[in-house]
């Protein structure tokens, strides 16, 4: 089934009888050439590109719950490519280019909305840092604008410009950044993968690996043994738990990140605004809710729910930045499980076990990476070589000392 304006009109006039499910619900086969573990955005995107771009057949995605039930359906939907370091910036810019063509590519409305992101500047040191970051962004063609305080007052007059502790002195803007509907991204990739023959198997938890003579032969699952020539693990916040079943200990800690949405308001916030000094970020959904978040909960956890002290901290950040938020009622809050790596950057790499590959360490910034991560993981699984934009995301960088410490906070996963 192909989506088009013509199809929508036709279905509206004929009682909506021609819509079909977006993907099949197949029983698992005894074996596949490639099995991806984890039906989040990254796993499904990898399966999609493996089948579509690299022409691979006989692929399955195994998901322990329903697809998108993890972080893919819990994030605050921000997409951007405003990074600084050479290991990161070209990768995230590649991702942004894939976002820009995603809906045409998958023939699915993922509501990609390039409304722009503004990172606020509160000190002269921060202005220097953002100037440097803006230059790195321009080198990789991502585009960047340095905004003065006066320009910002015109664009976002509701911010508290004269906060005594965090006066707003300007901002760094990426106009091509914005948001995308997270569920729409998952469904678009799932539908595209399914159309190319990928089996998406939900309610299928991987409980163990069959490894013999240093080579992976398949997976123990809640639906029986499934053989595989290659296995790609892409389970985000569950990475350390799943890879432990293959006998591996990862440089990753799991932490909870919460997010919140207010009642629906009239259009107020033009794009995404980030308040790094107080750690608060906000955008407005198409339904009108203010979508916002801040710091992680600050201790290790595998629970997909957070605690009240962080709610208070995030809301304090919001009040410091835009006091009008105090008039809005909070509608919902939720938590997701982050795979925080030691330097804040991801891992897309082969492991020492033949046929076993890992995609992990996305911290709280993996949604924007979904297209490029899927593409680069598919490239690695299909060709056994890293994609040109992902060569720095090797696991042994922690041994070699070549960490990609974008935030410059050292081996402190809870600070990235
Ligand atoms: C509150 C919050 C806000 C965020 N905001 C942003 C943002 O604005 N922008 C941004 O870029 N990033 C953001 N992120 C981060 C982003 O959502 C994640 O980095 C990204 O979604 C991770 O990749 P994924 O979609 O594949 O993960 P997931 O959706 O978590 O996919 C992993 C899947 O693996 C499955 N799984 C786990 N164990 C097993 C098993 N044993 N067997 C089978 N399946 C298994 C899980 O059920 C899950 O569905 C945010 C995260 C959170 C929690």
From TrEMBL:
Compartments, record wording: Cytoplasm
Annotated organism of origin: Celeribacter halophilus
Broadest EC class assigned to this enzyme: oxidoreductase
Presence of the UniProt keyword Oxidoreductase in the record: yes
Transmembrane segments: none
NCBIfam families: soxB
Domain Rhodanese: 34-78
GO MF term (any one): nucleotide binding
Cofactor: FMN; FAD
GO terms, biological process: tetrahydrofolate metabolic process
Keywords: Cytoplasm, FAD, Flavoprotein, FMN, Nucleotide-binding, Oxidoreductase
Enzyme Commission code: 1.5.3.24
Pfam family, any one: DAO
InterPro entries per UniProt: FAD-dep_OxRdtase, FAD/NAD-bd_sf, Rhodanese-like_dom, SoxB
Name this polypeptide is given: Sarcosine oxidase subunit beta
Catalytic activity: sarcosine + (6S)-5,6,7,8-tetrahydrofolate + O2 = (6R)-5,10-methylene-5,6,7,8-tetrahydrofolate + glycine + H2O2; sarcosine + O2 + H2O = formaldehyde + glycine + H2O2
């Amino acid at each position: 089934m192909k989506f088009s304006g013509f199809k929508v009109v036709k279905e509206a006039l004929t009682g909506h009888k021609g819509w079909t499910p977006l993907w099949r619900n197949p029983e698992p086969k005894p074996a596949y050439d490639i099995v991806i573990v984890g039906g989040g955005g990254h796993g499904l995107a990898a399966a999609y590109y493996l089948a579509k771009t690299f022409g691979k057949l006989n692929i399955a995605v195994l998901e322990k719950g329903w697809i998108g039930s993890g972080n893919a359906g819990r994030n605050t939907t921000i997409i951007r490519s405003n990074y600084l370091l050479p290991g990161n910036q070209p990768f995230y810019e590649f991702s942004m280019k894939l976002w820009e063509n995603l809906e045409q590519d998958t023939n699915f409305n993922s509501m990609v909305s390039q409304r722009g992101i503004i990172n606020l500047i509160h000190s002269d040191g921060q202005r220097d840092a953002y100037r440097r970051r803006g230059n790195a962004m321009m080198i990789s063609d991502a585009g960047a604008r340095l905004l003065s305080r006066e320009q910002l007052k015109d664009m976002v007059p509701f911010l508290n410009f004269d906060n005594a502790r965090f006066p707003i002195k300007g901002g760094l803007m990426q106009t091509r950044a914005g948001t995308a509907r997270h569920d729409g991204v998952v469904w678009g990739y799932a539908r595209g993968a399914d159309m190319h023959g990928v089996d998406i198997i939900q309610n299928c938890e991987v409980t163990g690996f069959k490894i013999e003579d240093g080579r992976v032969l398949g997976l123990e699952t809640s639906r029986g043994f499934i053989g595989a020539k290659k296995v790609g693990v892409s389970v985000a916040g569950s990475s350390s738990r799943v890879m432990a079943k293959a006998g591996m200990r990862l440089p990753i800690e799991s932490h909870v990140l919460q997010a919140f949405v207010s009642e629906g308001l009239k259009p107020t916030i033009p794009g995404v605004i980030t308040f790094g000094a107080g750690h608060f970020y906000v955008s407005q959904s198409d339904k009108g809710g203010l979508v916002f978040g801040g710091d992680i909960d600050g201790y290790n956890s595998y629970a997909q729910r957070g605690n009240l002290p962080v709610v208070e901290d995030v809301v304090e950040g919001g009040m410091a930045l835009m006091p009008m938020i105090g008039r809005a009622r909070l509608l919902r809050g939720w938590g997701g499980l982050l795979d925080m790596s030691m330097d804040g950057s991801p891992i897309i790499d082969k492991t020492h076990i033949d046929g076993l590959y890992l995609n992990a360490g996305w911290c709280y910034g993996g949604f924007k990476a979904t297209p490029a991560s899927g593409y680069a993981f598919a490239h690695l699984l299909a060709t056994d070589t890293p994609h040109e934009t992902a060569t720095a995301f090797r696991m042994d960088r922690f041994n070699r000392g070549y960490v990609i410490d974008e935030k410059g906070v050292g081996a402190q996963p809870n600070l990235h």
